Protein 1
Amino acid sequence: MNEPAPAIWTTKTTEVVKTGSWRVALPAYVNPPAPCRNACPVDGDIAVWIRHIESQAYRDAWLTLIDNNPFPAVTGRICHRPCESPCNRGRLDEPIAIRSLERFVGDMALEQGWAFPGTPVSKEETIAIVGGGPAGLAAAFHLRRMGYAVTLIEAQPELGGVMRYGIPPYRLPKNILDAEIQRILELGVDVRTNTRISTRADFENLRSEFAAVYIATGATVPKRLPQLDYSQPWVIESAAYLEQTNAGDHPQCGAHIVVIGGGSAAMDVARTARRHGKVVTVLSLEAEPAMPAQSDEVLEAKDEGITLIAGAMLQSVSDRAQQGLQLTCIRVDFEAGAVPGEFHVTPIPDTTFTVDADTIVPAIGQDPDISGLHDLLEVEAALVRIDGQQQTSLGGFFAGGDLVTMQRFVTVAFGFGKQAATEIDRYLRSGTPARDLAAQPEVSIDVINTHYHPRASRAVPQLVPATERQASFGEVELELPLSEVLAESQRCFSCGNCTFCDNCFYYCPDMAINREKNGYSVNDDYCKGCGLCVRECPTGSIIMRAET
Amino acid sequence: MMKMSSTKTLLTGNHAVAWGARLARPKFIACYPITPQTPILEKLTDFHMAGELDAEILTPESEHSAMAACISASLTGVRVFTATSCQGLLLMHEMLHYASGARAPIVMFNVNRTVASPWAFWPDQTDSVSQRDTGWIQLYSESGQESLDSVMQAFRIAEQVVNPVLVNQDAFYISHALEPVEVPAQETVDRYLPPFHPEHVLDPERGESLGNVVSPEMFCQHRKDIGQAMQLAIAVAQESDAEWERLVGRGYGIIEPYCCEGAELVIVTMGSMCGTVRHTVDEMRARGRSVGLLKVRLFRPFPVEAVRDALAGIPDVLVLDRNFSPGTGGVLHQELKSALYGMTDAPRMHGYLAGVGGVNVPPGKIEEFVDQVRRNEPAIHSVWTG
């Protein structure tokens, strides 16, 4: 609302002087995107929900979170947190511990039993989702929220995909996963488990039954090492290993296990085996800093007593019967390729060495099972080809998650599921394209006035001591205490998320900033472009634009 | 007359100023130390440390910033005091204009000292008389006692006409000389100087503004308003002095004619030189020479009518300037010529540059000046002496 111009007793009102004519640049109140949001696979309103935490409006924080992600207690534990490295706070001291804050909100929602706001089925079309993993579950949630009826088809006995069958409980407790899945199902989802859709005929049947089909069957076919004889009993695929251990079983294997691979699955196998009392060695092609596993996973694995041999390749295995296996390995230079999954290795001459083992678990990645799809729709290498709207070459068929990308992260799959819901809705409703989020440059540290943000160190969650972890599948990372959650929320710059502090209003020497219902506007009759409002904004919500 | 208990004590001029500032109860002091003003700031911080001065004391990085802070603080509606000298005053020059334009009733004390270069620490009033066009009311003091009393009066004047006031005393002759000073009781000062509650203050809750860009017509009107306030200041200064005299028994007038009745010659000057001239007049009068002193205490606004009245019928006027404006001469000489111009039977006007750069001007010297003046026709320009 425009305030009346304040009285000036010495000269009376100066409204006659249109100082705006001096200007060469005009501030714009645009609330540009924060770097964390731009990096977030689900396009989460991170600054907004952190601000809600700060004001102790926890339910508002959760409601903001679930707009983009129905699994905050899951991502609050296992997200690869691409949001934290670009965090502007990291340019001042350390990035915000976004994942820890998300876990706090996600756990509180489960403790409090908060349900998703109910959404009746309001649209006539029913959507089929093939695959009850992260992408499929996220798509089911978002489609239900839009009013669509959803049928979710899963080959396994239970929903969850890699979250259930791949990730061990010390990283993601099953009760947390179950609760967040159950909350989605309570929205009313037709679930068909133990139902495998794999043949061309299966898919064509879906086409006749449903208005649109979302295929998110993940990557379930292990890649294979040519130098390894997979028919031997001492080779166990990582997926099979984890599926058994996550179900509580102890796979048949010897006392010394060598895990081959540098990703999260390799770490999961190694750390699980350690908890089963095994001596574990991890053999990674990549040098340690380049390993695709998250760095804290690697550090925690080493703390738990796992031997890491990074930057080395298996050449051959000799089975010495009673004396076990001897692995011949060589040091390599690893070069990542232009796209994820591509790489080039160069063995370093005269660096051969051997490692003893009883069992080998290769964990070098998995490909999608496209056997039933490749003559139905276009594929590209091992992936299903989609366009920018997740549409396959076959009308009405959409695909996402590990089936279409080498970015193998649970949160990325959640993002696919969210986007798929929007695209399917647009496909069925002939809607207009979504707004282009990348159009605005994101908030940079240069426009944050750091004088308003005293230095403070990042909250670090406590870990269960390594000796205790070796004998337990209990969660490794502990929750942050409330006091640390609140302190951490106060560290957030709230980039591009105006906090209505009124600095722009008060600092403007020309009274050219007006308070509006949901923010501020600039009166270009009087703004002379001095930029004080921009300089004094603690959140970078107002930016200068040159005028020509 | 009601007189509350005051204390008579030995004080330097600077400490008398500090006492004056303390008694006026300013809420904000922004000050940068400079010889020979520093003891004022030191004494104020002593008072502050002892819990005897309830003010925020800011020591910024320069006098320019000190004055900028004073302006801002004053506009929020609190009583503000500061002190400086020579280079410091000149560094503030831009902010002096700003303060008067913003109608900030700040009181500043200046210890008159030679302006560099060359570098020196002697009494010379060029620093302050050269600020005559900045819109500040200016007073010149003859003694430590008068400096203390003038600080009281300065706040009363400043707050009534809403203009800043600069009070001056000469370096060392006054600033560092010990003399008996009567320090009035706080209750006396509180009666004289009520708490400062200006009509206009900057406060986001109230929504007032100041210093915006204006049109030529608005600027012109603004300057007219300052001019009116300056004219009003003459009467307000007179009233303030009279009321102070009523309370404590000491008054100085805006000018002081001393032994001017029937005088064949009157010496006009400002500051510490008034004391020397007063002594000389007494001695010459005792020997039958009819000379007098006209002390100019209020220099801005210049009290033209009062000066004309005081000098009407006087055959010769000798102006002693402890300042020098190159290309013109003595500034007070120039003011006097201007004030008396067109006056019927105006006195013959002699202007001597006496004491520039702190050169000593003893009573014998002044007697010599008087003899010279009586023998010679007045020169158009100021005449160098010493």
Protein 2
Amino acid sequence: MKISVIITLKKDVLDPQGKVIHQTLDGMGFDDVNEVRQGKYFEIDTKETDNDKAKAIVEEMCKKLLANLVIENYKIIDPK
Amino acid sequence: MKSSVITFPGSNCDRDMDVALKKFGFKNKMVWHADAELPKSDLVVLPGGFSYGDYLRCGSMASKSKIMQSVINFANSGGLVMGICNGFQILVETGLVPGVLLRNKYLEFICKNVFVKINDKQNKYFKNVNNDVLEFHIAHNEGNYFCTNDQLKKIEDNNQIAINYCDENGNIEDQFNPNGSIKNIAGIFNKEKNVLGMMPHPERMIDTSLSGEDGSIFFKNLIKNLK
């Protein structure tokens, strides 16, 4: 089963890369952007076939390795 | 005094640290990250470098390596653990010291000498250092120290800030902050002050023919404090 995870920076954490992307978009003519925040995306293919169990395992992965909860939030996307 | 330097895949300051520790009298052992047991040590050093290619977040993979459980146990039982640069990043990922290290504010890799002011001398690392300001070297891309407001309050209440970026006279101001760190923080302790994480490299300042000797002051003093 494939499960996707999106990691984003928390609201108050400075995102200099997002800022530079925003500036570049601005320079390209996309001048109606309010803010850009950069994050990470993971696709995890697990042997677990039970939806809830797989999500629980991935949640543990997020807490223990994939995200640093001081600065990041994680969101597990429901497998289809 | 016995020390151990942990080598992770991608460490590149491990041998410099070995040279520095031996120069000032430590009997140093190099320890591979996949080993489970830590040799008997008075000091454990996590060196600088780019462990695991800085994948995911700097230090995140190394913090889960086999030897780290022994290092964490050693630290929790009061043993001295010092993380320099990538070693500091590994320490924050283990949770031994609070906070995280973000990308430098202006997105540039910084490699230069800096001055740091010693904020606290009631610890094994800086006790009896006569100088208040030391000149060290930094070389990093992710040294921008960040923590939550709650963490910062605890850090300040417990006097856990070890060193702050400053000018040669010890003025801690924004203009002397190379990477955007909160409060110009260059290094912090755990609550008990046996664990020290810092971005600057004292091991690069132990020889006048290289870049300076303030690292010598640090190491000479450290071994004296441990005896």
